[in-house]
Amino acid sequence: MADDFHKPTQYSGDKFDTFEGGEDPAQIMRVAHDTANALLSRARATDDAEVIERLVAYTDANGIDALAELWARSSPRSLPGALWRIYLIRVLIRQDATGTSFLFQRGLDMLPTIDALVAGAPMPTGPDEITALADQILRGLFRGDFAIALDRAASFSRILAAGCTSAADDADPTNPERATELTTRADRLAQTADEFAGCARLYRAGNLE
Question: How far apart are CA 139 and CA 51, in angstroms?
Fold first, then answer.
């Protein structure tokens, strides 16, 4: 990655999933899988709530770049790939909770599916609620049913994608650049939702590595 980040990094949506890896892909993949498994094992082996909260809030103190160096180039359908995407979505939400909650609420209004129930979103979903929901999903990876947490992340991303699509339609007549940005984000979030769902299936089959 060409940018020099300072901690904590402000990570904009247009940089979503664009980190580049190092010179040795095999070594990078080994480190990614080892660190992801170690982090998850540590979280699930402890009853100390403070440890879990520190893991949830890790990027608040250290920046998303610290995790990007470990996990950003991992396969989307892998343990480090899933952890990376959930942490990244959490960071993006916390950087713009108001905008995200607007798009999420729009998605809830537009999407005639059970995704709202799966995501566990409170009604209405304001900035505080959307931030808390992101933390709950990440916390669920560490303490609850891992597959259910991934399903919740998939539904969350799907709802947000629908909101971006709807907002893009509104913006298109007067602000085509904004409409294009929102459409791109919607496509990216829809893809991420599919990746989370794929990870959940792999985990239930015992094949998420």
Answer: 11
Alpha-carbon gap, residue 9 to 24, rounded angstroms? 25
User: Is the distance from CB of 195 to CB of 77 less than 8 angstroms?
Assistant: yes
Task: Give the dihedral of Cα atoms 196, 199, 200, 206; nearest 10 deg.
Answer: -170
Other C-beta atoms lying within 10 Å of the C-beta of residue 61: 10
What pLDDT score does 165 carry? 97
178 near 7, Cβ under 8 Å? no
44 vs 64: CA distance, rounded Å:
22
CB 38 within 8 A of CB 92: no
List, for residues 6-58, the tens digit of each pLDDT value. Answer: 344 455 555 454 444 445 677 778 888 999 999 888 898 888 999 999 999 99
Query: Model-level pTM?
Result: 0.84
